[in-house]
Structures are given as structure tokens and as C-alpha cells.
Amino acid sequence: MTIVAFAEKNKAAEEIANILGKGNYKRTSVEGIAVYRFQRDGKDWAVTGLAGHIMNYDFPAEYNSWTGVPPGDLLDISPIKLVTKENFAFVIERLAKEAEEIILACDYDREGENIGFEAKELAERIAKVPIKRARYSTFSQKEIEEAFDNPGEPDAALAMAAETRQILDLKMGAAFTRYVTLSVREKAFTKEILSIGPCQTPTCGFVYEREKAIREFKPKDFWKITADFDADGNIFTGTHRAGHIPEKEKADEIMARIKGEKTALVDKKTIREQSLAPPFPLNTTEFLKRASAFLNISPEKSLEIAEQLYLSGLTSYPRTETNKYADDFDFKVILADLAKNKDYTTAVSQIVSAPAGIKSKNGPKDAKDHPPIHPIKGASKETVEAMIKLPGAYVVYDLICRHFLANLMPAAVFEKTKLEMKIKEELFDAAGSIKKFSGWLDIYDFETKNDKFLPDISEGDTTGVKKILNTASKTAPPKKLTEAELLTLMDKNGIGTKATAPTHIETNKKRGYFEAKGKTLSILNTGYMLMESLDDSVPIVIRPKIRAQVEELIQQVEDGKITMNEAVSTGTELIKKMYADLTENKDKLVTKLSGSIKTEAAETDKKNYIGVCPACQNALRIVTTDNGRFVGCVGYPDCSQTYSLPKTGAITVQRTKNCPKGGAAVLDVGKKYEWAVGIGPCFNCDQNVTCNPPEVVGSCPRCKEGEMQLIEYKDGRFLKCTLSCGHTQSLPNKGRMTVLDQKCEICGWNLFRVKEQGKDALEFCANRRCKAIGMRKEKTE
DNA sequence: GCAAGGTC
């Protein structure tokens, strides 16, 4: 008989076997899954690692049909739990047969308890043996031994808390997703799924809120007064104390008081040292934020790289909330190894030779899960790239190493100088900053902090005033949300976990709700329309509150205050209420979303795409029917915006031209003329001369007042006076003709250049009344 | 086909 233990993952199982077996264990394999066997106190032990959850909730098969089951019905039925990783289930059953006792040894948290219960459920189908729980937070000899010497009882409440989340998330996600997707498909053809979820939707909500703030932003005027001071040729700038002045009169008053002043007084000078502490050790969220901000790598990719670095033994486990090292953390071995990389040698020797010893600047979070992300081994760029074939592998490794080193280095020190300058009675502020001691910044050069110098002057000194400026300006709209900011918002609001935040961001990208351009996120039309309609109908869904409410129910289950069933039914009621709000506003939702989907389709149909509908912001495109053609909105029938088009002639939409009168687009009709959508033919327009300036070559030799204009038509070309004197002149009809910038020295007309195929190009004056006529210059190409 | 959470 054997004592069987289940850990959350293989790596943990091996650690446990190593510690409990005192380095003496045997690795066996069942169904390709490692089982570690060893002896302890005369007993046989078997430890295996699962792979996170091995079961998952789903609806019974008869509810799989999206069209056959009204989505709302999903809220009234109970999902069932099914095994998703059969090979692990097999190993659990196999080990249960030989077990005299089972110890659940997954991570010490809510999901870990739940994963243990999955193993428990499968094992209990096979054998009735005592099932215990080993609780540990680190893989130290002492903690592991204690955890397995005195295992406790499994915590059903904790495990059921996770179960509550699983059921409520599935119900809400499935019902909402099916409903929105199917409703939109009634009006617009799309194979895409429009998903809604308790984490992904608030995540999109953050991007939407920022975008909305940008779109609704109204810039405000302000004035700013600055002065350039001259201290013995050293020029520095100060800003008037009033800062941003919203009223022009006020700024003008100040200017009037100091106009023409040539000297200023150094009224006050303060110098203080400011130290900048190194960053806390890296936890997952902080790591993802920095990788995005410094390296421009998406959270999803960063986590994937960190996972590979971890599996290759280069860095530690990448999923942790902790940003504090344990008291007995061994920095020395790692530091010695890091010195192998020449980029780190100097920093390492600084750290190990510090008189006060090696000291970490620890953060406040100790989630008792894993140590902060840190390097395990020092490696060169070539080594890392040879081990991990992912773009960005080395820069991510380098970031982790530099962060680790920076954290152990002394604070940087800056000297901050403030000058209060007085021009008459008006106060101006100037600030300077000089790095006195670089400390950790030596190794961590991701954020550059440039020095800003001020001249060496003292209180009571006077300086010259070179110029005083009153600059009119406008307040700037908020900036687009960055991926790093989004991660912060998610973390603060409890949306997702350290390990899932990147997935939620990725889901939104995959659904076409928002996209990343470099570090910044931009909402896409579908995402904006979805959020806007949800904001109108079920605003709670796009805000973090929805997660918080479910989280509170879960917490009550965890605390044993309510049962899982009670929590599920309360939670389901909450979802039903939201679902009712959603269905009540179906029309609005569908109109906006189907319009946005059709707009995307129209935008890719370049030939017929016209532009944005002024009435509804969807797409305008050319519609051709048996009765002719016109420009219509994809939002039809909800939007009936239309424009007529000329009845004949091939139409080409000009992408480079905008109609100054506000036509929706400018079209070429045949090769004959232009037409502005919503305005009409360009030749009837008073703006035509501005839009299509005639090409003139010189003054009219007959009336002397008009200019000779080049007229080109299908069958030929000639010159015609722009005034009504009626003078015309023919031009050679063969070859490609261009009017040159160069002028005829005799008559002042622009020279012409004609190139016939197979012949040399000719440049000449075309003026029949010019004395230069006939003096054609040959030009070889 | 739908969620979010583990882990690979």
C-alpha cells in the first residue's frame, strides 16, 4: 500500500518527491505522466503532478444547439462537470487503487483546493481511503516536511467557492454570448462570435471608457507665459506662477505689467536631494507591465516567453503575486552565476561588495505562492537564443536579470533645484535636476531620466530677461490607454488573475473589439458599438462591478456563510436580471452592431466604399440595382441616408481627394469629369477652379489678358484662352506631353516636353507666335 | 461554437 499525493503540476510533484525522499526518488511514467516514487519512514510514496484543472463545467449535450435552445434557458439549468484531461483521470484512478491514504498537495489557494477536489472526486469513485490536505507555500525542506507530517482536512468551502465561480461564469458567458451573437446574425451576415464574459467585457470596458473620453473631449484654450532668463550667457526658461491661464485678458494683463523688462531677480533658490529607490521585485503583473512598456511585447507573448525561460531553468516560475523575497532567499549563488554575462559583471560585483551586505528592496505583497520572478542562471544572449526560439526571448530574460540586479542596488540620488524668479512683481518658476548618483539606474536603463541644468546663481542675483512669451494653447485630450495601464486597471479592480489577464486582453483582440498598435490600445468599431449598447442597456456588465459582485458571493461561500447552491441561485438571479435588461434593448443592440459589422465588410470592398455616413457613422457605399445606382448607408433600413449618382459612365472613387464643399467623396465619371457625392458634377461647382486649377502655359498672344490653358480630351489636346477672346492653338497630338517649369527665354511660355515611344524626348516652346518657334531642342534620355 | 481558471 502506498501514500499517494497529488500536486498541481509536475514541477511541484518532483520538488516534493525530492524533499520527502531526501533526494532519493524514482521517476516512473503512467500514460506519459510522471509519477515519482520513493520511500519515507518505511512507507511507499507516489507523488504525481496534475496540469491545473483536469475537469471543466459544461452544459449537458442537449443544450449544445445555439439555435435550438433559447439562450436564456441556459440560466435555468445546471451545468455538469466533466473530465477534460482523460490521461490524468486515468493516473488518479490507477494510483487510488494502491493508495492507503491520499494527500491533496496542490497550490495553497482557492483554485488549488478545487483542483485537489477534482482528484478527490475521481479517486473516491475507486477507493474509500482517507483523503488529507498538505498545505505549504514554499518548497523549503522544513515547510514541506511539516505539511506532509501533519496534513489537515480538505477545505470543502474553499473548493466550492471556486466551483461557484465556474458555474456562474459559464452561465453568464454562454447565455450572453449566444444571445448577442444570434441577435446580430439576424440582421448581418457574420461567422464571428460576439462574446461577453465577466472578465473580458469589463476589460474591454476600460478601453472603451478611455476612447469615449477622447472622443468626447472638448479642448479648452489656455495661455501660458514663459520667460527666458540670461545668467551670463546661460539661458534658462521659467514659467509664470499662474501656470495655465484660462482667460486671455488675464494673460494679457500680466504681459502688460512686465512688457519690455530687461532684468529679473533670483527671489528664492532651493536645492534638495531626492532619492529614487529601485523597483520592487517582479511579480507577474509588474513583469507584464514592464515588458509592454519597455520592450513593446504584449502580455500574452511575455508570459509565453517567461514560461519557456522557466522551463529551460533560466528564470523562476512566472506566475506569482509576491513581490517580496523570503528571509532566507539565497542571492549569492544566483549573483555569482549572473556574472557570467559580461553585461552584468559590474553590477554583480557592486552588489556583493556592498559593506552592508546584500539587501533587497522588498515590496509589500506576500501571497505565499512563489518567490518574485528572478533569474536562476546567468546566460549569454547566444545561449538564451539557442535555448528558446521565440522572438524577444533574450530581451525578456535581460529585463528579468536587470530588474533582479537593480532591486539589490542602492537608490539613485538626484539634486533638484528650484528657482523662483521675479520680473517686477511677477513670479516665474524654473526647475533643474541633476543625477548625483546613478545607483540602480546603472543597470536599469529602460527609463532615461535626462539631466536638466540650471546656471549656478544665488538668491539676490539679477539676471537678464531675453524674452517673454505669451503662448496660446489648447488642453490636450487624454492619451490612448496603454497595455501596461490596462493591466494596472485589471489588477486594481480584480479582473482576472495574474495568469489570466493576458488571456482576457487577447480574447478581446481576437474578437475584434480592440487592437494594439505598439504599446497603445485602440478600440475597434465593433468593440465600441458593443460597449456602447451594453452601456445603454446593462451598464453593469461593462464595469468591474459585475466581477466584484460575483466575487463577493464566492467569498461568502469560502467563509462558510452560505452554501454553494445558495450562492449559485443568488448569482443566477443577478444574471437573469441583467439578461432581461439586455433582451429588452435588443433593437438598439442589433442596430448598432449589425451596422458596425456591415461597415467593416463595406470598408474592405474598396471599389464601392465611399466613406462615413454623416447620419449614423456607419459606412456609405455604392449600391447597384436593376434600376440604376446610388450611394446608400449600410445601416439601411435603420438609416435611410442616400445620394444620387450620374446615370452613365464608369465610376472610380478617388481616395486622395476631399471635396471642400463637404461631398462624401469625389468620383471620376468615365474619363470625362468629376462628381462629388451629395454635391453633383464638379464642373458646375463654384469651387471647381480651386479644386482643378487649369494648367496654363503662358499669356494669350491675342487678347494679352487671358492665359492659354491646356485642354486635354479623349481624342487630342489644344490650347485655349481662359478669357472669352476665343483664341485657340493646336498642339502635336502624338506622344506623352508634360508642361515643364522651365520658361521660354523669348516669349515666357512654359516649355513643353514630348516623348514619343522609341524616339528621343523633345523640349520646345509651343507658342506659334514666338520667335523661338522651330527651335526645338533635342533631349536624350 | 459560449466563460474563466489552472498549466504546457
UniProtKB/TrEMBL annotation:
It catalyses: ATP-independent breakage of single-stranded DNA, followed by passage and rejoining. Residues 2-141 form the Toprim domain. The keyword Isomerase applies. SUPFAM superfamilies: Prokaryotic type I DNA topoisomerase. Residues 155-579 form the Topo IA-type catalytic domain. Its EC number is 5.6.2.1. Keywords: DNA-binding, Isomerase, Metal-binding, Repeat, Topoisomerase, Zinc, Zinc-finger. It is an enzyme of class 5 (isomerase). GO terms for molecular function: DNA topoisomerase type I (single strand cut, ATP-independent) activity. It comes from the Archaea. Belongs to the type IA topoisomerase family. This is DNA topoisomerase. It comes from Methanimicrococcus hacksteinii.
